[in-house]
Write a structure and sequence with these properties.
heterodimer, A: about 500 residues, mainly alpha, two-stranded antiparallel ribbon, about 0% strand, B: about 500 residues, two-stranded antiparallel sheet
Amino acid sequence: MLEPISFSLESLNLGTLAPMMIAIIGAISILLTDLFNTEKHKSLYVVLVILFLTFDLFTLLAYSGDERGLFDMMLLDGIAILSQVIIISGSILFIFLGLSKLRFQDFRHAEYFALYLFMVAGFQFMVSSDSLILIFVGLETASLSLYTMIAMHNRMVSIEAAIKYFTMGALAAAFFVFGSMIFYALTGSLELAQISEVLSSQGYLSADNFSNYAMVLVGFVFMFAALGFKLSLFPFHTWVPDVYTGSTSALAGFLSVIPKMAGFVVALRFFEVFVHSGDMIIHTMLYITVVLTMTIPNIIALQQTDIKRMLAYSSVSNAGMAMAAILIGTTQATSALFLYWILFTVTNFGAFGMLWLNRGKEYGDYKSPYAFIKFSGLAQISPFTASILALFLFALTGLPPFALFWGKMYLISSAVNAGEIALAVIIVLNSAIAAYYYLRPVSYMFLRDPEEGAKTKFMQNASLPMKSVVGFAVFLAVTSIFFIEPLLNVISYYVGTTSF
Amino acid sequence: MENILSMLIFFPAVAATVGFLIHKDSMRQYGVVVTVVEFVLALLLWYHFDSSVAGMQFVQTLPLIPTMGINFVAGVDGVSLFLIVMITFMTMISIIALTEKRNVKNLIITMLYLQMTMVGVFVALDVIMFYIFWELTLIPMFYIIGFWGAERRFYAAIKFFLYTFTGSVIMLIGMLYFGYVYHEATGVWSFNLLDWYGAVLPFDVQLWLFIAFFFGFAVKVPMIPFHTWLPIAHGQAPTIGSIILAAVLLKMETYGFIRFSLPLFPDASVYFMWFMAGLGIIAIIYTAMLAYAQEDMKQMIAYSSVSHMGVIILGVFALNVEGITGAVYLMIGHGIVSGALFMSVGVLYDRRKTKMIKEFGGLAHNMPMFALVYAIVLMASIGLPLTIGFIGEFLSLLGFFKASPILAFIASLTIVLSAIYMLAMYKRTFFGKLTNPKNKDLKDIFGREAVALFSLVALIIALGIYPKVILDPLNTTVKHLTQVMQIKAVNQDTKDKLKALNSIGEVK
């Protein structure tokens, strides 16, 4: 006998939906604009996206944390707000790259920009919920939009990349659902807070309670694989270089930071109970994954001859470093995760943005416009461009005082404070390995002489707005030392309102 | 005068940034003007420096990231003062003597940025700030070696970068761990070195931290077995790069030992004393032998640098006033002398485009002035009395003599060995008949080369005859340092040992 469903309208608290609704309404209005008007320049859509996202951002900032809504499925806590701010601001930055000088297929369609907003809304749902169902819905909304956007670039590699990403994503989705099912069967709830409460109060997380413990492990492995795909953790990272190569640099840069931010928040919420339970098997599993995710792609990146593939592997490795923060599990480590990711967003935006500025149209399918060779002697032709790209690469290396150094420093510091010296040493050694491959393009740009006729190859795609926004990233990357203090205050305020 | 230190740091950086606007034909003059101004600033600092005060002077503090305890803290004491004067002087001289033709504008701008980072390293009293400047030296140096260097410059530049970067990130862990320990003890986050000087660490923590810092410093010194990047970096670098590398960058690390390792980890320093001295002695003997075997003049001087750095390490880890004073004096001396040596090789390289010793011979016939200058510099490098090289080597070895007469004796072989390889090289280059027809038309030094080399020679002799001007303020600082070590040591054995090593007192 089913109980009659009753709920009060207050518990619906539709206000919590407002930020996402703005993005969705924005997407629909872009589609409608396109319907009634055929002769439009892409700049209209770009500006509309920026407008709606800014609106979205300001609406979001009105919340100060810990509100629930939509049958308790929405959870706007500090972490949700903080990560949404990062996601939206990052998305605003990346959409500027749509104002490219060259005409590319994808930017001619209004759908691209509508999908962009749908995707942002998806990520927003994903981070502001602790219900596995809503997380799944958000995740899939965002992912499906992404697959389409990749394929819209209309090159064979892009379509291949989209299909690859889609198949992998579908597999991950299946794992996610299967894992959720097991946890529902075990605990009778799909809410992460309740799941973790049941798990710890019933003692499911200890080997004494063997039959249930085995089920927990199976469920954990499924969820872990699902999140592993999204976060590109080793060994689920194999799609990354191909998908990045197939996407435009603008989208590849986006892929390397924003979806992962959403993934990290889910991982943070989901892994929390396991990290704190002190279970050896799960801890070892996470530890090994983190170490391998940092190390293996780093080693593979050493052999790349293409900047974009190299950056792809390096972003996998960086995801491993951020994942280390979740493994450490202290409040400082959670702050470190956000600080790291904000700085990584700025730096990676700069690096991929510079690639996008230098994109030409003369490249056929399956040929990369970003081989190291192409950048030979850039310093002599355009010292400014070369210096900026080198600056972002040095920042990614973790050379002080540029942006990512502070993230790495704070992360290592949190590892040291938590007594994880071995982990700190591994992070540091990986930075040292990474220095080698970040240096290689720099050495091509600065130490070699340009090839014949290379002069026309650079900055073909640069338009003034794109240059300005990359210039803004340069400014942030160089002067980041002055922003760390306020940034940390904001982060610790929001993280502090949540119990992590 | 309060902000003279930040002016010293940031003036070259601002000048470099403005330098982009200057036409490339006037760049050389601009570089000279900027470095002269910077040198005058350094002299002004010296003039206002109170040599009777042992602690830090001109201390300036600005908040950067207060919650993490990271601030802009600058200050100088006797040790850093003279190193700053030396590096500003050497940068000025190397710009004056600059003969590079290719892309001079970029080279000078890079040099000015490099000067900022170098001054920053010696002035920084906040550990993270020190680390920032320390790492930043890599970028301009990477560019200088890699772009203006010889055939294998890519390999040399990347090897240089990776070796030193790896060493320093390990040091970073040590720094962060120290910050953590300090936080645990006091409840405050601070990376201010002056605060750290007040912290007393347990012995085992000291050991670990000493090792972490050791990696950062030892790679750059470079100490055996981490020295392999140096000869290739030197060999491939352009003249100006070699001068700065030898004169300044190598000094950063021995300075690091004096600034960080000794006062922060006194027990560990005593514990590792023999180990460090052993590495120093191996470096002295082994690389001196390698130097003798070199066919390339520049490689030879590079190896001789490693050898002399061994003496400096020995002096530092004598852990007494004589040794450390001598080491600092030798750092200054070696900076000037090796700079002059590399400049002299540069003179030959400019004329003949080769650095191979066997290509030359009998140069004294048509380059008498150059032969004379080279001879004086060479003698200073060997450590002949009345030159700057002698004072430092003598004091370093004297200091270590108190610790172990036998090892000091072995180390003093450095003088004999360097005499052997240096004089052999000199003989093959300058004496005998002018056999190679290509050498017949070589012109003697003149103009800018002469100005640069003569001022170096003048300094070599002046400071060799009258070292008191530097030794006195240095002594005050170093005496204070050894006292700090004795006070901060946690083991009684360490205290006794330090007391025994410092029994005689000061050098006058």
